[in-house]
Design a protein that fits this description.
Blueprint: E1 17-18, E2 31-33, E3 48-56, E4 64-70, E5 73-82, H1 86-100, E6 104-106, E7 114-126, E8 133-144, E9 150-160, H2 166-205
Parallel strand pairs: 2-5, 3-6, 3-7, 4-7
Antiparallel strand pairs: 1-5, 4-5, 7-8, 8-9
Length: 206
């Protein structure tokens, strides 16, 4: 079984691409896919308490596995979905990745030292050029507690995708997302450290 896990099994392995789908009594079972968190063997001794905010455009705020076909046209796999709307699934996967590695603890209290904002810019298969690529792109922003130190990072990753099955597409999306999460984790560590050094220098000059 692939690294991501399936929550249901298609009775038919034939996958149809459709721009929209109406699930009625005669509809075939829908396969649900999840994203995997990044498992890190190296743990950070002192995790950073932070607040987390995830956003996306309206198209990506859904459970559809999207394929961009060029000329502004997108299609979704008719018999496959993400297990939950993408922003929430990305949030859960990111939190698991950060907390498992000891990088950060996500809090909703005044105890946090800053806010991590992640805007999902792209999360679909790009087939416009005829060579399908699973693309994940985000813009990450770190804002310290005082709002004086703000850092940004654009992160993008892609993987070759096979459009013959939703399972292959979900696997490629999962791999690309893993690459993005790994880079995001490393950047966050650097951003928090940089902000701490800047705040320390400012304190010494006062």
């Amino acid at each position: 079984m692939s690294s991501f896990f399936r929550l249901a099994v298609l009775l038919s392995m034939t996958v149809m691409l459709s721009a929209c789908l109406s699930l009625g009594p005669d509809s075939k079972p829908v396969t649900l896919f999840r994203l995997d968190p990044v498992v890190s063997e190296a743990r950070v001794e002192q995790p950073t308490p932070l607040k987390l905010s995830i956003s996306s455009g309206s198209l990506l705020n859904s459970q559809r596995l999207w394929v961009y076909q060029g000329d502004g046209k997108v299609a979704g796999f008719a018999e496959a979905r993400w297990a939950m709307p993408l922003p929430e699934m990305f949030r859960q996967t990111l939190i698991s990745s950060l907390e498992q590695s000891g990088t950060a603890i996500v809090l909703e209290s005044p105890a946090q030292v800053g806010t991590l904002r992640v805007a999902i810019r792209d999360f679909q298969v790009d087939n416009a050029a005829g060579a399908a690529q699973a693309v994940v792109a985000i813009k990450a922003t770190w804002i310290d507690l005082d709002g004086e130190n703000i850092q940004h990072r654009l992160i993008r990753a892609s993987e070759s995708a096979n459009l013959s099955s939703a399972e292959s597409v979900a696997g490629a999306m999962n791999s690309a997302n893993q690459s993005v999460l790994k880079e995001l984790r490393q950047w966050l560590l650097q951003a928090v450290e940089s902000a701490s050094e800047t705040n320390a220098d400012s304190g010494q000059r006062q």
